[in-house]
Each structure stands twice: as structure tokens, then as C-alpha cells.
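User: My instructor asked us to take a sequence, write out its structure as C-alpha cells, and then describe one feature of it. I'm not sure where to start. Here is the sequence I was given:
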Amino acid sequence: MTDNHCTLPTLVRQPFERRAFISYVLSAITILAAVAACIPLFSVLVMLIYRGGRRLSLEIFYALPPTAFESGGGFGNAIVGTLFMVGIAAAISIPFGILAAIYLAELNPHSKAAQIARFSAKTMTGLPSILAGVFAYATVVLTLGHYSAWAGGVALSLLMLPVVLLTAEQAIIMVPRPMKEAAYGMGCTPAQTMIKVTLPVAMPGIITGVVLAVARAAGETAPLLFTSLFSDYWLQANEPTASLAVLIYNYSGMPFENQIELAWTASLVLVVLVFVLNIISRAIGQRKK
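Assistant: Let's start with the prediction itself. The C-alpha cells for your sequence are:
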């Protein structure tokens, strides 16, 4: 009787075989590169927590900045000013960015106007932030005749707009075509399909782009130096307005220990603010999914 069953050879990976050895080496290099890339990030976070956490208290959220030789104080006005100017920028950039993304992704993606708009948006992502400040200074500050939170919001919106537009466009493009065709097959108009199908499905990507834009705007300093300057008082929209980024810039170069400590604490608060925004965007994105 002939045994028809054949025994398959067992494949054993030899650790010093050429391809396996190269794979091990490249994996080790990749891991080391990842660890090396994380070292600066974690070192900055540890330093922020150590230096900024020492002055972290409720007082800094409602107290005004101290004068040169005073101790204590806070930067509640800078927090309010940052939120107000970022809110103005978001109110300008998010609607225009999403509407432009709909045009680029769905309505007329291959037109000459769409190509110019897309190229301009990609160019603006690399625009030096100080140029946005100069533009807002020339168009808003000189027109109104004074520095203000409105001018700061306009400058920040120029930095947020291309990020919102490009990420929203990609999110809309990634919506599966069969979902749109199914909506058309059920009798939906293009507007209904966009509102009921395309935008809800693309919303996690759109929110991610919005949060990235807000994070960039919240940490910008140069545009605000040309538009909102700084103030030691609470928010007045038509007057120079304090912001966390400018406060950090001003206080970090002062010779007074109290102001330097406040600069570290303001840096920590700004990082935590951006981190919270990212968590909120992730939560909204998961819920939408």
C-alpha cells in the first residue's frame, strides 16, 4: 500500500540569513529613529510640566499680569484674548474653507478656477506667518486706525483657511462613490446628498483639519505682534489685546524671575489647551463613525 501523503518541509527562518539579517537591522534602525524622534517631544513636555507646573494655580486664570517688580499675578486676560481671536479666525475660515472644499471636490474639481484655488491653498500652507500679520496690518489695522482683536482674528484666519480647505477637500474626496450614487438613486438632489450623506461621512476628517488649524493659530506669535499687540487689561475687542503666544514671547525675555515663571506656566496652559482640543476632535470623530 502506497502512502499518498507527503510531508511538507518546515520553513524555519534563519536569523543570520541575508534577507532576515537585513530585515532585523532595518527594524532596529526604525525603532531607534522613532525613539530618537520622541526624545525631544518628551523632554519638552517634561520641562514644561516641571517648570510651568510650579506656578499652576487658580490665580493665573483670573489675575491680570503683574508689573515689572510685582510678584504673583496671572494671565487670565491672555487666555480670554487667545480664545476670542481664535474664535474670530474660526468663524471666518471654517465656513469659507468648507464651502471652497465642496466646490473643489464635488462641483467643479477640474476647472481652471479650482486648479488655481488648490495651488494657492497649498502655497499658503507654507506662507510665513509674519506675512499674514503684515497683510492684516495693511488691510485692517491701517483701515481701522488702531490695533485690535479683530485684526488679530483676521490674521489668524489667513493661516487657518488653507489647512481647513485642503483637509476638508481630501475628506470629501474619500467618501465612497457608491454611497453618493445610492443617494442619487433614491431621488436625492445634489444638495441633499451633500448635506445628508457626504458631509456627515467626511465630518471626522473635516474636524481633524479644523483642530489642526486651531492648534496652529493658537500658537502663532508674529501675526499678533502686527495686529493685536498686547495688553495688561481684560479683553476690549477694539483695543490692543493680550494673547498667550505674545505673553510667552514678551515674558521669556524679561530679567524678572516672576515673569519668566509665568511664561513657562503659560506655555504649559497653551499645550494643554491644544491637547484638549485634539481629544475633543477625536471623541467627535469616533462618535460620527
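For the description part of your assignment, you could build on this observation: The first helix runs from residue 18 to 52. Try explaining in your own words what that tells you about the chain.
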